[in-house]
C-alpha cells in the first residue's frame, strides 16, 4: 500500500497539447488508456513544457490544453478514477529533468530515432523568431540552429515525466518507444548508484501501432494535415474519407484492386466492427466488383457510428467548460503531491538534502 492508499500499479502517459486528437491517437494509445483505468492508477499528462512553439503562439497552446482534456473526457477517460495532469503546473518535472540530465549522454539523445525525425521535421517547417534589430519583424528560420534547445532535450523531460509518479506501465504510440527505452536505462543507472528509487517501466503499444494518414502517408499527423479528428462532424468525416488515398493502380471499378497497404481498408480493419461487411468488400475489391465510392461510403458510415457517442459526450463538455478545468485542477493537485514525495526521495538519494540533520 502506498502513501495515498492505492496499491495498484501506476500508469503515466501523455500527449503534447498541439490540438485536437485524432483516430491515430485513439487506435494507437487512447483505447488502451480507457481500458486500463480500473486496473491501474492512471496519470494522464498534458505535456505543455514539450510544445516548442510555446514562445511563439501561447494562445494556441492554451486552447489545445483544454481541447485535449475535452477529447479525453469525450472518449471516456474518467477523472474520478484517473488523474488529468498539466505538466508545467508541476515544476518538479523541470527539476527532475535537470537532475536526470546528469545521467544521460549527448550521444544517447543524438541517436534517438524519434527525436532525430522530429528535429528534421521542425527544421524543415522552420521556427519563427522576432528579430528585434529589424523593428520586431517576424522571420522564419530554417536551420538546425533554430530548433530550440528544449526540443533537443525533451526526451529527458519525458523520462522525468514517467519516473516522477514511479510508473510501471507507459501505454503509447509506437514512435514513443525509444523514449521508454531511455527511461528504463536511466532508472537502472540511477537505482544502481543510489538505491531502488524507480521501477523500470514497460511500454505498451496499442492495437494499431501506427495508423496511416488519409493521404496514404506513413503516419496520421496534425502537422501533415492528414488526420480524421475525434471531434470532426459527420460531414467532415464523409468529405475526408471520399478524398482518401486508395489503390493508385486501379483506374476503373472493374480493375482488380489491392487491399493490402490500402489505407481505406486499413481503416475498415481498425474501425469497422462489421467484419462480414469488410470481408465482402475486400473480396469484391480484389475481383474488381466494387467501386471505391461504395467502399468509402461504408467506411464513412462506420467511422461516424464509432464517433457519434464521442461527439455526444464532447458536446456536453463544450457546454460545460468548468467541468473540464475542474478535472484538470483536481488531477494536477493530486499529481503534485505525488511529485513532491518522489522529489524528496530523489534529493536525499542524491545527497542534496544538505540541511537535514
Ligand atoms: N512525447 C509524447 C508525444 O509526443 C508526449 C509525452 C510527454 C509522453 N510526456 C510523456 C508520452 C510521458 C508518454 C509518457 O506524444
In short:
The protein is mainly α and 357 residues long. Helices cover 50% and strands 10% of the residues.
Report on this structure.
It contains 13 helices and 7 strands. The chain has helices at residues 23-36, 58-75, 92-100, 106-110, 113-125, 149-152, 154-163, 177-194, 234-242, 263-271, 275-286, 292-319, 321-350, and strands at residues 10-15, 41-46, 83-86, 127-131, 137-141, 169-172, 202-205. The protein has a 3-stranded parallel sheet with strand order 1-2-3, with helices on both faces. Strands 4-5 form a two-stranded antiparallel ribbon. Helix 2 (58-75) crosses helix 13 (321-350). The mean pLDDT is 94. Tryptophan is lined by residues 12-16, 45, 47, 50, 158, 161-162, 170, 172, 176.
**How many beta strands in the DSSP annotation?**
7
Average pLDDT reading: 94
Order of SSEs:
EHEHEHHHEEHHEHEHHHHH
Radius of gyration: 22 Å
> Approximately what portion of the residues adopt beta-strand conformation?
5-15%
How does the overall form come out from the CA principal axes? globular
Query: What structural class results from the helix and strand content?
Result: mainly alpha
Question: Which cofactors or ions or other ligands sit in this model?
Answer: tryptophan
Number of helices: 13
How many angstroms does the end-to-end distance come to? Answer: 28 Å
> Unreliable stretches, pLDDT < 50, 5 or more residues?
none
- Kindly state the percentage of residues in helix: 40-55%
Strand order of the largest sheet: 1-2-3
- How many strands, what sense, and barrel or not for the largest sheet? 3 strands, parallel
